[in-house]
Amino acid sequence: MKLPELRIGNLVAKVPIIQGGMAIRLSTARLAAAVANEGGIGLIAASGLPFDELRYEIQLARKLSPTGIIGINAMVAATQFAGLVKTAIEEGIDLVVAGAGFSRDMFAMGKESGTPIVPIVSSAKLARISEGLGAAAVIVEGCEAGGHLGTDRSAREIVPEVVAAVKNIPVIGAGGVADGRGMAAVLMLGAEAVQVGTRFAVAKESNAHQNFKDKILKAKDIDTVISASVVGHPVRAIKNKLATEYNQAEKDFLAGKKTQEEIEELGAGALRNAVVDGDVEYGSVMAGQIAGLVRKEETCAEILEDLYTGAAKVIKEEAARWADVNV
Question: Considering only CA atoms, which of 130, 58, 51, 60 is closest in space to residue 94?
């Protein structure tokens, strides 16, 4: 069984899977190109990168995957967001994915250059607004996802609402997908593709420190927690000493014992500490709730094959199972 291709504007991905644009130094040209070469869409994490480094990453990705679909992921709330988008467009990036906030200006930039803009949304209302402004697709991310969260609702709840709300653009489900069954579930909700983060974070082409990968690979199904629910943007990560101290610090903040500045200082540089330096106790090991299903460090080709064939198999089996039902 063959799954439908994903069409975003004039782009056609043979495999309806997007590799999430995770942390810088993790979602790099090497990882994005490895996904793109297998027919999926690879994303480079742009937030926090100097413009010259972003240019280098995009140019490298093009060398590694001359015909694949390469995009960037940029946080709207990040410093120099507009500059990052402008730089990527100048380099001929295939698409721009934007989350952690909302910007009307990015749609104008995309329209002017012909670059598809794909916002990450967490409600049907924002999806409708995005389509009206010219979004080429929307990514619906639920609270199951790793990293910065924009909602406390599950993608399983939001995806059907967004599918019903938009008219002419693809809906891509994100959060809680680590295997073929999870992918099939999101597709059955009406999404045309999925975005996957945690499983690609531990791919062989991922530049993440081995300690970071091992922490995810050893995680159980109950090992992720949400921090920064009081101060800052909520973040899902694997429980460690930093997460425990951060949650206690937020309780102290509510009790008037700590300032917001003290809490922000506690989390400063935490993601880099884990991804680059391998400090998985006092660094932030951002991972999705599905981390307990991720057990092997594989190549991107192996991951994509497993997700794609697994989803196709489940859909085919379920179709046969219900073939005699009259509707």
Answer: 58
